[in-house]
Design goal:
Distance between the termini: 26 Å
Strand order of the largest sheet: 1-2
Number of helices: 5
Strand content: 5-15%
Shape: globular
Structural class: alpha+beta
Order of helices and strands: EEHEHHEHH
């Protein structure tokens, strides 16, 4: 039997754990209808959830969008089960892309998730 998880996305429903999902959106509002429920579902399933956001949004707006679905968001942020970061901090810390640094960061988060 397959180990399914709820995506929180009505149109997709359940998928195998570890599945990759792509979503093409036309507007910021379309994007905001998908990502917060997806993250909320991950948190409910005790998963590590990371939102690396672009310049189209800022930290406060990202957090506010999530708070609509997640009432205790500060608790998730505090225990680092939820991480919200700008893409510049993740992908281009020194104003240039460093693939090795990004790989190390993903490895560190993988260890954190397992622990």
């Amino acid at each position: 039997m397959e180990n399914l998880r709820d995506t929180g996305i009505d149109i997709i429903k359940n998928v195998s754990w570890g599945s990759h999902i792509s979503f093409l959106y036309e507007s910021k509002q379309d994007f905001h209808k998908i990502l917060p429920p997806f993250i909320h579902s991950g948190l409910k399933n005790n998963e590590l959830c990371i939102w690396i956001y672009s310049e189209a949004i800022d930290y406060e707006e990202a957090k506010s969008l999530l708070q609509f679905y997640i009432s205790d968001i500060d608790a998730y942020l505090e225990k680092k089960q939820l991480i919200i970061l700008p893409y510049t901090r993740w992908y281009s810390q020194d104003k240039a892309f460093d693939g090795l640094q990004v790989t190390r960061q993903w490895q560190d988060l993988t260890k954190q998730a397992i622990e």
